[in-house]
Amino acid sequence: MPSPNEGGAPGTPGSASKPSPVVFAVANQKGGVGKTTTSVNLAASFAAAERRTLLVDCDPQGNASSGVGVRRGSFELSLYDVLIGRATLKEAVVATEVPLLDVVPATQDLVAAELELVDADDRAVRLRHALHPHLDGYAFVVLDCPPSLGLLTLNALTAAHRVLVPLQCEYYALEGLTHLMATIDRVRSAFNPELTVEGVVLTMFDGRNSLTHQVADEVKAHFRVFDAIIPRNVKLSEAPSHGKPALLYDAQSKGAQGYLSLAREILDGVPAAAEPKKRQRGDAAQAEPQAEPTPTPAARARDARPRS
Question: Which residue of 63, 76, 251, 281 is most buried, as measured by CB atoms within 10 A?
Answer without folding.
Answer: 63
